[in-house]
């Protein structure tokens, strides 16, 4: 709504982001468990989550580190997993134009799947929102995700050995991404990129050091861009 104030927008973001607690808590706890079992101490595990704040990239990097993969491979794989952040940033940038530098810097750090996905969906639905309200909504969403990620990483690191394996906390990762990606598959380009990423990840899964993910991510982005280009040309030709 055009009359939505930043305070109302923040509370709305907090409300919309709150359900992610149910998946982020076990996901972060699982990372804390895995990281300490891989040899990191509690402090290193917590700093890892605070500095990176990207669950899938953290798991990918941790696995490769435990396999003694070359540093370049660890960095490349983590960057490949996080390439979607660059697309999120490009999509969010026009909405945050004119915001103070400190807000942009904080938003850049806090751009994760949850904050980007919910924000972009709302901005498309309500383009009349003011820049201040858009920023407030974004921070409302992340005000749930960030503390949850930090706190449960610490909890997992401190008490991970007491968690029974039968709890299977790794269910949180696929459920989180299915919940976020589903509503965003709105165009043929989105669906084509998603399809190619799945096929590529399966086809190249046997490549050492998870390099198959890097290949799948690149192929998916190229596919999405090409489909978008074809559709644009088709619209121009029909018009």
Automatic annotation (TrEMBL):
Q: Give GO cellular component annotations, separated by semicolons.
A: plasma membrane
InterPro entries reported in the protein's UniProt record: Brnchd-chn_aa_trnsp_permease
Entry-linked Pfam families:
AzlC
What membrane topology was assigned to this protein in its record?
Answer: Multi-pass membrane protein
Question: Which keywords does the record carry?
Answer: Cell membrane, Membrane, Transmembrane, Transmembrane helix, Transport
GO biological-process terms attached to the record: L-valine transmembrane transport
Compartments annotated for it: namely: Cell membrane
Q: Where are the transmembrane segments?
A: 20-40, 135-155, 167-185, 192-222
**Family note:** Belongs to the AzlC family.
Name of the protein in question: Inner membrane protein YgaZ
């Amino acid at each position: 709504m055009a009359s939505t104030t930043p305070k109302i927008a923040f509370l709305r973001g907090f409300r919309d982001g709150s359900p992610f607690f149910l998946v982020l808590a076990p996901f972060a706890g699982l990372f804390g468990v895995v990281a300490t079992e891989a040899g990191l101490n509690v402090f290193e595990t917590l700093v890892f989550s605070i500095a990176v704040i990207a669950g899938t990239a953290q798991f990918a990097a941790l696995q490769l580190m435990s396999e003694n993969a070359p540093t370049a491979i660890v960095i490349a794989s983590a960057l490949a997993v996080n390439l979607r952040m660059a697309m999120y940033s490009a999509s969010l940038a026009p909405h945050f134009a004119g915001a103070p530098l400190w807000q942009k810097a904080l938003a850049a750090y806090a751009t994760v799947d949850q904050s980007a996905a919910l924000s972009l969906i709302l901005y498309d639905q309500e383009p009349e929102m003011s820049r201040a309200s858009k920023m407030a909504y974004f921070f409302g969403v992340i005000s749930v995700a960030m503390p949850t990620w930090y706190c449960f990483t610490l909890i997992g690191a401190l008490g991970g050995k007491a968690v029974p394996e039968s709890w299977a906390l790794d269910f949180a990762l696929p459920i989180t991404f299915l919940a976020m990606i589903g509503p965003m598959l709105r165009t043929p380009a989105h669906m084509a990129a998603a399809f190619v990423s799945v096929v590529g990840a399966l086809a190249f899964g046997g490549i050492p050091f998870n390099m198959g993910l890097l290949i799948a991510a690149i192929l998916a982005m190229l596919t999405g861009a090409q489909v978008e280009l074809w559709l644009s040309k088709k619209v121009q030709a029909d018009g």
